[in-house]
Design brief:
The chain has 202 residues and is mainly alpha-helical. It is built from 9 helices and 2 strands. Helix 5 packs across helix 8 and helix 6 crosses helix 8.
C-alpha cells in the first residue's frame, strides 16, 4: 500500500491534491491558534491594573476615563495628547491603595457621615441652579455617568482615604489626657520634712 502511494504521488494530480490538503491543514492550524489566542491569550486578558486581588478591567477603566473627559470637558484626542489616560490610571490606583489601607486600619465611613458629606456637596449645586437636592443629585450622576450606589461607594472611599492622608501627612496629635499626664510629670515637685531622734529622746 505504501508502495502504491509512493507511485501515485509521482503524478501531477496527486501532487496537486496533497499540496491542497497541506495548505488546508496549515490554514486550519492558523485558525485554531487564533481562536486559542482569543480564548486564553492576550485578547482575553482585559486587566489594565491589579491592586492585590482587585483588578481594574479595560471596560471599567474606560468608564472611569470617559467620566474624566466629561469632567474636564475635553475630547478623547485632547486627553491622549495631555497623557490623561496615564494620569487617570495612576490616580485610580493610588485611590484604591489608600482606600484599602484605610479599610485595613479600620477607617470606615458610615452611611450617616457619607450622607452629611453628600448633602454638603449637593447644597451649592442646588442653590446655584435653584433646584432641589434630589434633582441636583440626578444631574450630578448624569454628568459623572455613574449610579447612586457607585457614587456613594466612591465618596466613602475618598473620605476614608482623606482621613488616612491627614493621619500620615499631618502633625502628630496626642490625646489630651496623655498631654496632661506628661505636663504633670514634667512640672511635678515634692516637699519633704524630717526630724532626728536621738537616744536621749527615747
Amino acid at each position: 500500500m505504501l508502495q502504491a502511494m509512493r507511485s501515485g504521488a509521482k503524478s501531477n494530480f496527486i501532487k496537486f491534491i496533497l499540496f491542497g490538503l497541506l495548505v488546508l491543514a496549515t490554514i486550519g492550524l492558523a485558525f485554531m491558534d487564533v481562536q486559542g489566542m482569543f480564548r486564553g491569550g492576550s485578547m482575553a486578558n482585559t486587566t489594565v491594573a491589579k491592586i492585590g486581588r482587585q483588578k481594574i478591567t479595560a471596560p471599567e477603566f474606560d468608564a472611569i476615563y470617559q467620566r474624566a473627559l466629561r469632567q474636564q470637558n475635553i475630547t478623547a484626542e485632547e486627553g491622549y495628547r495631555a497623557n490623561l489616560p496615564m494620569i487617570v490610571l495612576n490616580q485610580e490606583i493610588n485611590s484604591r491603595i489608600y482606600a484599602r489601607a484605610a479599610y485595613d486600619l479600620g477607617l470606615i465611613v458610615d452611611n450617616k457621615t457619607a450622607a452629611a458629606e453628600l448633602k454638603n456637596l449637593l447644597g451649592p449645586i442646588a442653590t446655584e441652579a435653584k433646584i432641589s437636592e434630589a434633582e441636583a443629585l440626578n444631574r450630578l450622576l448624569r454628568n459623572l455617568g455613574t449610579s447612586e450606589g457607585q457614587f456613594v461607594s466612591t465618596l466613602k472611599n475618598q473620605m476614608a482615604s482623606e482621613q488616612l492622608m491627614k493621619i500620615i501627612s499631618g502633625p502628630a496629635r496626642a490625646p489630651r489626657q496623655l498631654i496632661d499626664d506628661a505636663l504633670k510629670y514634667r512640672y511635678e515637685w515634692r516637699r519633704g520634712e524630717y526630724f532626728t531622734l536621738t537616744s536621749a529622746d527615747l
